[in-house]
Amino acid sequence: MALFALRRFLLAIPLLIGITFVSFLVIHLAPGEPVEVQTGDLSVQSTAQARQALRELYGLDKPFHVQYWKWLTRVVQLDFGRSFQPDGRPVLTKIGERLPITLLLNAVEMLLIMAVAVPIGVLSATRQYSLFDKVTTIFVFVGFATPDFWLALLLMILFGVQLGWLPISGLRSLNSEYLAFWPQQWDFISHLILPVVVATFGGLAGFSRYMRQSMLEVVRQDYIQTARAKGLPEQIVIGKHALRNALLPVVTILGLSLPGLIGGSVIVESIFAIPGMGQLMVQAVFSRDYPLIMGNLVIVAGLTLVANLCADLAYGIVDPRIRMAARRRRR
Amino acid sequence: MRRASPRAVRLLLLASLALAGCGIDVEGRSDEPVAGAGAPAHGDTFIQSSISDIAGLIPNITSDSASHEVGGLVYDGLVRTDRNLDWTGQLAESWTFSRDCMTLTFKLRQNVRWHDGQPFTAADVLFTYQTMIHPKTPTAYKDDFLVVKDAEVLDPYTFRVTYSRPHARALQSWGLNMLPKHLLERYVADGKLKESPQNSQPIGTGPYRFREWKSGEKIVLVANPDYYEGRPYIGRIVYRIIPSQGTIFLELKARGVDLASLTALQYVRQTEYPAFRKAYRKYRYPSSGYTYFGFNLKDPRFADRRVRQAFAHAINKQELIDGVVLGMARDATGPLRPGTWAYTNRVKRYEYDPEKARALLAEAGWKDRDGDGLVEDKEGRPFTFTIRTNQGNEERKKVAEIIQQRLKEVGVGVEIQILEWSSFLKEFIKKKRFEAIVMGWGVGTDPDQYVVWHSSQNGPDQLNHISYANPEVDALLEAGRSSCAQPDRVRYYHRLQEVMAEDLPVIFLYFRDALPVVASRVRGVEPAPAGIFYNFTEWFVPRELQRYTSG
After folding, report:
1. What percent of chain B has pLDDT over 90?
2. How far apart are CA B328 and CA B195, in angstroms?
3. Helix, strand, or coil here: A113?
4. B287: exposed, middle or buried (C-beta count within 10 Å: 0-12, 13-18, 19+)?
5. Inter-chain contact B425–A42, Cβ cutoff 8 Å?
6. Which chain A residue's Cα is nearest to B549?
7. Which of A186, A231, A255, B272 is deepest in the core (most CB within 10 A)?
């Protein structure tokens, strides 16, 4: 097993390097360069001379392969460099200050989606073609099809402007640091309600449909028949025997969506003025901030590979056939 | 102090350096009575909305308008512009030019201290100059300082610069934010200015001290009690970073922000209800950017001045201004902003007159020879071309569409192509692969626009994209930028505007209005040609109307 893990890990390294090479290439091929953005492309004050000086400063005048090699050797030593933007802060610091809020939002959203989508999926599978099934199907697809910026604005107008129950945007109120502990927590939570609702509503469709499909397959299996024949109550048949098996494929999908936890949603973040990863990345792309874009890509690519690796290992544990195959090969 | 989309920011970079002016109409109105009520008082918090985060806290090395806005309150320059956009002393008490315009001597204020208590002296000015010209300082504003021949400290409160030839922007360039030598000297020497603590914890001499910057969330400034012109009234300023225009507007409706810029549609149609008019006062004054319809003058069709004049007659500017920005703009007659000292409107105008347009086209050899509605040249080739503009700017798209419609009426066929900003610049503008464009220029305080119109400035990385070359314009631009005597310069620039209005290198369309709103509890806002922000330190909220603590 350890050998299997090691092999997979070693294979992931060239893959990661390949990903960074292609990304580096694509970013440099995109029109526009950091220098232009910084001097303000068409500002009357910036001249060709000033731009050339900046290019030399960032090493952008060097050939592509030299730039990539320099970048790669630094990243191997875990030095992601400093942002090209005028704040010049280290890439890892910039990512570090945006990551917690994005992780929190995405984790809460993911939990909520599971909490709502799993029951919806199970119930609509066990009552296939019932009124409940039809209504929830329409509901989740409406959620799937609603543009999130539009829903966000409607909710903001209703709860923020008309009713005044919830804050419209941001993470904390202006006076938040003067509040006592619990009111301060509530202040923070109340700012997260609308963004989480908007993001969850859009994500329900996928999981609830997977759940429904998976459940429909499981309830047709012989062992469910057997369980019913034993005279077990329906709740136990569905809740214990069927649900556990039906959850397996859904958990796999969940595992694969883990890297998505660190990528923020640009639209939700922009509309609710939440300083998360999505905004950071978009800003980095617009200003052609190569070190920051690459830093983020390496982290996402790395996480994806790790998630894949874990999924493979988990299969190995769950499904003896994979383990056996590996052992046979070794012999 | 203005808000703009990132795209507009690039174009209107110099917006924070306002223009000079007189006699332009500026407006401010609200249902709330303004005068009389409440005496000036210290305190309260002023909440601004900013569509983008700041890039850094040393504005000398940033080029986004948000950084310059925040930096302008933390740092001071030697000079600044007043309500009429005339230059006045800030850290400098006075200045004198030598007779030949080559030497400029500043007398500095003696009672100024940095926010950390150190005194501000001429050594800091010299240091700031040296920072700007240091080869490793990543700044876009070097050029004004590279032309300095010599800079010297005569005594702790006297600073002198010498130029090798007269430099029109000499005085204006010293509006630059002054940086503290005692904190930054070694970072500049190592070429690490960007990485200095100052870039996230700035120490300046300005009316506000830096308190905190939460990346992507907010920036907080507090009043500097030791400011040499007296402590500013408003105790705390919070810049809330809200990247969506729609959200800013909703926050405004919920009274969550005290200042925001409106779009023309919001200004005219969506804010005219009583509750809004009670909570905010609206202001309107010309901004520092204009929109134009430009041509590739290397194209023989557009090189003919009669064709450009014909187009000018074919376009109904008032219709354009009403249709595109609901009338919230002013006619542009040339590249200088109306109301500034070098501006004149005694230039050739082109009234809407399709007949005249057709006659001019015919004179240039373009007639409808086959009766298909399009004009053709002698060889029978129809006059058709493509207008290109950038994506994400509805206004420019609408301008292009209205022009398309009007030119069709005089027999000219127009296609429109909308392109992503970066590729538009790189693939089309810089490589001069365009026939016509709809674009904008931001204009600075000084009328010098040598880099835009001079025939020597048409290289791939330069700004005369349209390849304009007119010997008289060249001579006037050179004369204008090499004098420091305002009466002489006025003559050169008036003539320049006359020549350009006649020659029409581009068709100047309009200067858009800035449309800010300010919470009506804030008093002391006095609209002037410079806008409303020139006297921010004098704004106050009467004690009984204060809404927040001041931190």
Report:
1. 58
2. 43
3. helix
4. buried
5. yes
6. A175
7. A255
Name the residue in chain B with its Cα closest to that of A178: B551
d(CA B180, CA B409): 61
Token digits of residue A280: 């950071």
- Reply yes or no on whether the pLDDT at B207 is more than 50: yes
Token pair of B499 as six digits: 């020549």
Please count the residue pairs, one from chain A and one from chain B, whose beta carbons lie less than 8 angstroms apart. Answer: 176
Long-range CB pairs of B478-482 (<8 Å, 24+ gap) are: B478/B450, B478/B454, B480/B168, B480/B447, B480/B448, B480/B450, B481/B167, B481/B168, B481/B169, B481/B448, B481/B450, B482/B101, B482/B165, B482/B166, B482/B167, B482/B168
Q: DSSP assignment, residue B390?
A: E
In chain B, which residue's Cα lies nearest the Cα of A170?
Answer: B217
Span B341-384, pLDDT tens digits: 889 989 999 999 999 999 999 999 998 888 888 899 888 899 99
Q: Is B23 left (phi over 0), alpha (psi -120 to 50) or beta?
A: left
Q: List, as ranges, residues 14-53 from A with C-beta within 8 Å of B.
A: 30-32, 36-51, 53
Partners of B103 in the beta sheet?
B162
Is the pLDDT score of B12 beyond 50?
A: no
Q: Which of A39-43, A52-56, B439-443 has the lowest mean pLDDT?
A: A39-43
Residue-level pLDDT at B13: 32
Q: Distance between terminal CA atoms of chain B?
A: 23
Crossing angle of helices A2-29 and A290-318, rounded to 10°: 150
Query: Is A159 near chain B, with CB under 8 Å?
Result: no
Residue with the two structure tokens 């003559």: B491
Tell me whether A177 touches chain B (CB under 8 Å): no
Residue B293 has pLDDT above 60, yes or no: yes
Whether residue B347 contacts residue B295, with contact meaning beta carbons closer than 8 Å, is answered with: no
Nearest CB to B243; choose among A87, A161, A270: A270
Spell out where B112-197 has E strands: 148-155, 158-163
Residue pair B391/B420 in contact (Cβ under 8 Å)? The answer is yes
- What predicted TM-score, i.e. pTM, was given to this entire model? 0.81
